[in-house]
């Protein structure tokens, strides 16, 4: 008690302390200087904590500014902020005004007069609820920022749906906004109605409120809100009519007979009934005609019941018994809209006979077709790259790309792979924090190998790939460092106090990072360090002595993450590819504009519209990212271009060294070939009957775990060949089709692109009455060939595993040539490189397996008559009666190289083994030249 009195001062006498009591304590008051220091410190602490809590914002701002796309981030933040404020303010204002009106209208009734205890009791939770509505509605609106921006910048597709007469742009740009607004308004109105009703009940008092005769001010308010809900339901039925464009009830996707003739009109009736019911509700608050409400409700329920019950009945009893006649018009609509959505309207068709043997002129070693027949499977050669050109454990080859480059004066198809950093490859004791972020910071260079060549022992030949790389010629790499790649790498710091590993430690000199990487962030003061440490979740960033004033931190080093961070509204191809251009390594990512809202088009997965509209290039060293707008017409990409004015660069400005390597993208080609397998048929009757439906051709692929052959759909793959009817070779994708449930080939599709990124599709059809063997049938012919079967069985019993590579479908003029490489892999031990040993070539009439592609093709065209068939068992040399003299020095060097290769093989040094094999091949070539052209048997010329 005494403590309370002392604390509050209650009961204290003014005459001073009582006798025997302790003297009063003197209170401490800080001086003015101390107060200023405390206030200043508090301000700094608050600011510091605020900056730390907003670390994501600041890091994003610095990153986008350094990457050159701050305007994109500004537009995004403005759109999100504006949507948040508009959505939150409108929803919260509507909600707040209604409960405030309910409080005011209940004035004088019960005990809820303003200032009374119930009124004060209600206001606090209601204001809190208003705040919740503000934030929830604002966040919901801001999450749809892309939808709002597209609506503001969208245009017409000039494609009109035949049911409602609306341009496709209405469905892609406007209908999503209409649906979001209707749904959000309905949620807010429903919550407002419930809360308003509760406020009235509390305000008037439960005992003082007659539910049969509520006060007029309450009745008009609540019924008006309910009328608004009914009107929004009416709007939902109108939207539901447009949503019929995505119906799955009919034979095809989109509006069908039942949708157009039954469901649509029921929805229109429900719109009218909803409007009438809303008017009846508002009128009833004054006139009080309960019968009107009952009649409107009954009519609405009847219409809803009819809408649920009648369409299935009509579908089953009227449509399905005469489905073709009923649905024919709608099938026609679906075919036209689907072909338009996937860009198949401009597709070119060409008929081929499919008969005969490929001309010998196209199968000679001197022909362009010969040099570009791909004998290396990307899965096989990736392992060889790792074993022969990895050199050190902290580099790995993640993916292999197919491209074309000039080699020895000719444009050759090659396989190319980036040597990326693999920090996990280091020993455990070397995987330290400083090593990960300051020392092992980047990959190094790339490997290039022609697709149709191999060494004497069947290993890849490398046109580029050493450390350090060649700095001259068309494959010169002057800037081999890879700071940005396909792999998801952690953050690193450049220009730190620690020397970075560059190439091979101890052999390749390290150099400081030159220039400023796009998207790099300075850490030149304590505040930036604190923010970066918070963002990265690593306090060592704040404490590290390795970071200097010149250091910059690189984040978002995955090229996919980097592109998606700048343009999250684009769809990116999952398979980027590397380009060597002007001595630099540059990544190219194909990007697309997609939608799932195109009217009446059959979806492929999650989308039913796609265009290849953007090519993204990312410099592997500097991270410089450029979004090139292709020449492909597209309203969605045009909308983004208007919204983000600085995002796209015209593709004409792409450097020629890069634009030469632009190619037909895989993702859209796969989608187009999938859709075209059904939608090559344009006649609705034939489409309905399905008699000419196609499938993607299947092939037998060896399971990497079991070694067993499994049937899989053929992948699209890139080829460099002259297409039928064209004089010059092109680089594009190819995919074969077979008839539904059959194995013979019926057509194949080729996709090409020009340097402007404009895509072109061509389909080559074979006559339905002729038989052109498909991949599975050729696989069967190969398996049934007595010689091939015996030889592969024999090889598989000698401690090696026989691997059949991908079966390639190679169009040559009017017919098809099939090529399949055969590899050998040692089963004993691990890490042995897989060797290319045989090449199988097949046509409709013949199957041949020889050690070299030249021999196999020669057998197909009849040029191998001088060779015995059994000479295919092992690579041999042609007999020579009087072998000419050759240099003993070269022979000695070749023998020494062979012995060094064997020593490297025994100790498992595959990099050294590959180098010696290349040296041995060079020496043997020189020996052949001295000997006057005596042939040396190799897997390929």
Mean pLDDT: 85
Estimated radius of gyration: 38 Å
Low-confidence stretches: 1-17, 108-115, 874-886, 932-941
The coarse overall form would be: flat
Tell me about this structure:
By secondary structure, the chain is α+β, with helices and mostly antiparallel strands. Among the domains are: 79-205, no CATH class; 210-341, no CATH class; 558-662, no CATH class; 684-872, no CATH class; 878-941. The chain is 43% helix and 17% strand. It has 26 helices and 28 strands. The strands form seven sheets. Strands 1, 17, 20, 21, 22 and 23 form a six-stranded mixed beta sheet that branches. Helix 18 links the parallel strand 15 and strand 16 (648-650). The radius of gyration is 38 Å and the shape is flat. The N and C termini lie far apart (107 Å).
Write a compact overview of the structure shown:
With 941 residues, the protein is α+β, with helices and mostly antiparallel strands. Helices cover 43% and strands 17% of the residues.
Write the SSE topology.
Blueprint: H1 2-8, H2 32-53, H3 55-67, H4 70-105, H5 117-142, H6 145-153, H7 168-204, H8 216-243, H9 257-287, H10 290-319, H11 323-341, E1 348-351, H12 368-371, H13 378-389, E2 395-397, E3 401-407, E4 410-421, H14 433-439, E5 443-444, E6 446-450, E7 481-482, E8 492-494, E9 520-522, H15 526-536, H16 540-543, E10 552-554, H17 559-566, E11 571-572, E12 577-581, E13 584-595, E14 609-619, E15 625-629, H18 635-643, E16 648-650, H19 656-659, H20 666-679, H21 684-689, E17 694-696, E18 698-702, E19 709-713, E20 717-722, E21 729-739, E22 747-753, E23 759-765, H22 775-784, H23 786-796, E24 800-804, E25 808-812, E26 815-826, E27 835-842, E28 847-850, H24 853-861, H25 888-906, H26 910-930
Parallel strand pairs: 1-23, 15-16
Antiparallel strand pairs: 2-4, 3-4, 4-6, 5-7, 8-10, 9-10, 11-13, 12-13, 13-14, 14-15, 17-21, 18-19, 20-21, 21-22, 22-23, 24-26, 25-26, 26-27, 27-28
Helix pairs in contact: 2-15, 3-4, 3-15, 4-5, 4-6, 4-7, 5-7, 6-7, 6-18, 7-8, 8-9, 9-10, 25-26
């Amino acid at each position: 008690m005494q403590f309370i009195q002392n604390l509050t001062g209650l009961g204290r006498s003014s005459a001073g302390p009582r006798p025997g009591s302790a003297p009063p304590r003197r209170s401490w008051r800080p001086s003015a200087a101390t107060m200023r220091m405390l206030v200043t410190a508090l301000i700094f602490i608050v600011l510091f904590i605020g900056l730390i809590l907003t670390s994501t914002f600041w890091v994003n701002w610095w990153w986008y500014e350094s990457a050159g796309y701050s305007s994109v981030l500004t537009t995004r933040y403005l759109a999100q902020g504006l949507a948040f404020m508009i959505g939150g303010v409108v929803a919260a204002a509507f909600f707040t005004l209604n409960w405030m009106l309910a409080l005011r209208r209940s004035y004088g009734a019960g005990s809820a007069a303003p200032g009374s205890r119930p009124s004060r009791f209600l206001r606090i939770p209601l204001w809190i609820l208003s705040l919740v509505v503000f934030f929830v509605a604002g966040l919901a609106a801001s999450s749809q920022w892309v939808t709002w921006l597209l609506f503001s910048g969208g245009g017409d597709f000039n494609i009109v749906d035949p049911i409602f007469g609306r341009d496709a742009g209405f469905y892609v740009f406007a209908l999503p906004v209409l649906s979001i607004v209707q749904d959000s308004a309905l949620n807010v109105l429903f919550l407002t109605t419930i809360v308003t009703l509760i406020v009235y009940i509390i305000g008037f008092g439960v005992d003082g409120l007659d539910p049969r005769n509520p006060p007029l001010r309450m009745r008009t308010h609540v019924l008006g809100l309910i009328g608004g809900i009914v009107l929004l339901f009416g709007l939902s039925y109108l939207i539901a009519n447009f949503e019929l464009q995505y119906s799955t009830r009919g034979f095809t996707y989109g509006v069908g007979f039942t949708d157009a003739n039954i469901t649509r009109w029921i929805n229109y009736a429900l719109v009218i009934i909803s409007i009438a019911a809303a008017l009846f509700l508002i009128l009833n608050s004054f006139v009080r005609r309960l019968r009107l409400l009952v009649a409107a409700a009954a009519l609405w329920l009847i219409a809803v019941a009819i809408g649920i019950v009648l369409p299935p009945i009509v579908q089953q009893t009227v449509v399905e018994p005469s489905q073709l006649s009923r649905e024919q018009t709608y099938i026609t609509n679906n075919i036209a809209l689907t072909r338009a959505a996937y860009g198949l309207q401009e597709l070119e068709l060409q008929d081929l006979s499919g008969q005969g043997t490929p001309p010998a002129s196209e199968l000679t070693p001197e022909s362009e077709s010969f040099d570009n027949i791909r004998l290396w499977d990307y899965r096989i050669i990736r392992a060889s790259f790792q074993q022969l050109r990895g050199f050190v454990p902290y580099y790995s080859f993640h993916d292999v790309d197919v491209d074309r480059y000039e080699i020895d004066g000719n444009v050759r198809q090659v396989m190319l792979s980036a040597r990326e950093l693999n920090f996990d490859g280091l020993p455990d004791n070397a995987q330290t924090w400083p090593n990960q972020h300051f020392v092992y910071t980047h990959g190094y260079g790339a490997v290039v190998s022609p697709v149709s060549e191999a060494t004497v022992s069947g290993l890849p030949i490398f046109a580029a790939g050493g450390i350090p790389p060649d700095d001259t010629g068309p494959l010169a790499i002057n800037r081999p460092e890879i700071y940005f790649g396909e792999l998801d790498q952690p953050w690193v710091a450049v220009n730190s106090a620690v020397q970075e590993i560059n190439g091979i430690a101890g052999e390749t000199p390290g150099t400081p990072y030159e220039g400023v990487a796009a998207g790099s962030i300075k850490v030149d003061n304590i505040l930036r360090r604190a923010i970066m440490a918070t963002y990265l979740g690593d306090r060592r960033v704040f404490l590290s002595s390795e970071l200097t004033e010149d250091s910059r931190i690189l984040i978002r080093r995955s090229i996919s993450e980097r592109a998606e961070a700048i343009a999250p509204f684009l769809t990116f191809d999952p398979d980027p590819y590397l380009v060597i251009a002007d001595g630099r390594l540059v990544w190219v990512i194909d990007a697309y504009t997609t939608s799932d809202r195109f009217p009446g088009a059959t979806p492929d997965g999650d989308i039913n519209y796609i265009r290849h509209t953007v090519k993204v290039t990312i410099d592997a060293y500097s991270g410089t990212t450029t979004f090139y707008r292709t020449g492909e017409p597209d309203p969605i990409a045009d909308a983004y271009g208007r919204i983000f004015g600085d995002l796209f660069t015209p593709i004409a400005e792409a450097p020629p060294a890069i634009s030469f390597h632009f190619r037909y993208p895989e993702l859209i080609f796969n989608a187009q070939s999938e859709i075209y397998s059904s939608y090559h048929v344009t006649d609705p009757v034939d489409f309905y009957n399905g008699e000419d439906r196609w499938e993607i051709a299947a092939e037998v692929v060896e399971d990497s775990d079991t070694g067993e052959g499994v049937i899989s759909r053929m992948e699209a793959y890139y080829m460099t060949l002259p297409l039928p009817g064209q004089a010059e070779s092109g680089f594009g994708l190819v995919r074969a089709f077979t008839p539904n449930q059959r194995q013979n080939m019926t057509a194949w599709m080729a996709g090409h692109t020009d340097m402007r990124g404009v895509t072109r599709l061509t389909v080559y059809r074979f006559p339905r009455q002729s038989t052109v063997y498909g991949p599975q049938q050729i696989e069967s012919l190969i398996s049934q060939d007595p010689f091939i079967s015996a030889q592969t069985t024999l090889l598989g019993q000698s401690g090696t595993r026989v691997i059949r590579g991908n079966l390639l479908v190679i169009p040559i003029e009017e017919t098809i040539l099939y090529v399949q490489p055969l590899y050998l892999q040692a089963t004993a031990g691990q890490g042995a490189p897989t060797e290319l040993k045989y090449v199988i070539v097949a046509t409709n009439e013949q199957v041949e397996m020889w050690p070299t592609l030249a021999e196999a093709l020669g057998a197909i065209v009849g040029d191998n008559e001088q060779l015995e068939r059994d000479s295919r068992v092992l690579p041999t040399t042609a007999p020579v009666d009087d072998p000419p003299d050759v240099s003993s020095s070269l022979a000695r060097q070749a023998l020494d190289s062979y012995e060094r290769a064997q020593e490297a093989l025994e100790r498992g040094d595959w990099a050294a083994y590959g180098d010696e094999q290349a040296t041995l091949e060079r020496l043997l070539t020189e020996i052949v030249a001295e000997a006057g052209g005596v042939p040396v048997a190799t897997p390929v010329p």
